[in-house]
Amino acid sequence: MVDYRDLRLSNINSDRFKHVKLLLFWPVFGLFFFSVERIFPNRNWHYVYVPLDDQIPFCEWFIIPYLLWFVYLIGTLAYTLFFDVPAFKKMMHFVIVTYGLTMLIYLFYPTAQALRPQSFSRDNILTRIVGGLYQFDTNTNVCPSLHVIGSAAALFAGLDAKRLHKWGWKVTYLISGILISISTVFLKQHSVIDLLVALPVCLIGYMVAYARNRRHNSQISGIAADRD
């Protein structure tokens, strides 16, 4: 566990704390996302749709895993920050690559969707929450899905964290990631296309943050073995 009580601006560049600077990506991302969402709302939107979207029924129960995404992502980020710095670094590298690439896509190929129901056939607490979500969250800048990419970030970090290597944690992380990802289409927040496009973006992030890191560690281990 890292003790951050000694963290100061004067020592943030030290080997002990320099990983904290990776968190600066989040306000930069937030400013960029706010800009493309709010400052430039009137754009040439490309509407995302495939016929399969019509075959997927709206189900308000999926608002539960959809909202748990925030706990899933932020919780994993906080856990690795305090208990597994190497996993935190790889998670943030994944986030920086995938979220950065997604922002460029949103900027140069703005997308939108028109899948949300005009009214709900049922009136309950879940549909009311979904209605509030629709009012808060726009139906623009949807492809690829940041919900899916963020779920992948938490999933890979959870599988990578040393203290979470037990099968129970792995299964929990995997099921949570799947439920959160598919919740986006059952709530009509995203098209199936948004999920599919997120996959190659996640693959790029994985290759940069995890696969390359494993190759680097293997090379170091090989050099050490040769010296022995």
Structure description:
The protein has helices at residues 25-39, 52-55, 63-83, 85-108, 125-136, 146-160, 167-186, 192-227; strands at residues 46-47, 111-112. Strands 1-2 form a two-stranded parallel sheet. With 228 residues, the chain is mainly alpha-helical. The longest helix has 36 residues, at 192-227. It has eight helices and two strands; from the N terminus they run αβαααβαααα.
Averaged pLDDT: 90
Q: Uncertain spans, ≥5 residues at pLDDT below 50?
A: 219-226
Largest sheet: 2 strands, parallel
Based on helices, strands and strand pairing, what is the structural class? mainly alpha
Distance between the termini: 32 Å
Query: Largest sheet, order of strands side by side?
Result: 1-2
What is the number of E strands?
A: 2
CA-based shape: globular
The number of helical segments is 8
Measured as a percent range, the helix fraction is 55-70%
User: Which H/E pattern describes the elements?
Assistant: HEHHHEHHHH
Radius of gyration: 20 Å
Q: Which percent range describes the beta-strand content?
A: under 5%
